[in-house]
Amino acid sequence: MQERKPQQIARELALLSLSQLPVNPKKLTEEHLPKLVLATVRTLRAEVQDTLDNATGELQRSHDRLLTSETRAADLNIARTMLKEAMEHTQTAINQLGAAIEFPELIQLASQDREVGRYAIKLVKTITEHRNIIDEQIATALVDWQVTRLAQIDRDILRISVAEMLFLGLPDRVAINEAVELAKRYSGDEGHRFINGVLRRVTEQKQTA
Question: What is the pLDDT of residues 97-140, one digit of tens each?
C-alpha cells in the first residue's frame, strides 16, 4: 500500500463514516474513533454490495435485451449501453474492494496516530456545522443537477473538499487533488472527472465572490 499521510487516512474515515455517524456529530471526540472506524467499515461494505447489485442488474437487462431482440440496431445499441454501465459499476466495485483490502492497515494507522482521529473528527464536525453553506457552494457549481441527487459517496467527497477549502485553510489546488484521489478509490471512472470539474467551478466562484 502506498504510504499515506495522517490527513489522507482521516479523510477516508470521515468520508466513509459521514453517512453512518455513531453519535451526534457535535458530541464527537477522539474517544469515538473506534465507532467511526466501525461506521466506515459498514459503509464500505454497503457501497460495494450496492455497486455489485447494480452491475448484476445491468448485465441481466443487457442479456435479456439481446435474447429478445431480433438483432435490430436499436436493441443492440441499448444492450451495448447496458453492458457499458454494468462494466462501469463493476470497475467501481473493484476500486472499493481494493480500498477494503487495505482497511486493516488503515485502522491500525488510525489507532496509532492521534492526528488521524483529530482531523477525521474535525472534518465531520466542520461539515455538520456548516452543511448549509457547503451544500450551497456545491449546488451553485453543479450544472443542471441537485446536491440531493448525487451519489452519497460523491456528495460526501465534495463536502469534505469544500469544507477544507472554506473552513480548514487547505489550499484549493491541494483540496481538489485530494478529492480526486478519494474519488479514484471510492467512485467510478467518471466520478473523479465529475468531482474535479465541480470543485474547479467552486474555486472560480470563490474568486469572483
Answer: 666 656 666 666 666 677 887 898 899 999 999 999 999 999 99
pTM of the predicted protein model:
0.68
Q: What Rg do the C-alpha atoms of the chain give, in angstroms? A: 19
Cα of 167 vs its chain's centroid, Å: 20
Q: Which of 83, 63, 175 is nearest to 126 (CA)?
A: 175
Task: Check if the beta carbon of residue 9 is closer than 8 Å to that of residue 116.
Answer: yes
DSSP letter (8 states) at residue 146: -
Long-range contacts of residues 22-28, Cβ cutoff 8 Å, at least 24 apart: 25/124, 25/125, 25/128, 25/129, 26/125, 26/128, 26/129, 28/121, 28/124, 28/125
Contacts of 34 (CB under 8 A, 6+ apart): 111
Rounded to 5°, the CA angle 8-11-17 comes to 145
DSSP structural state of residue 189 = T
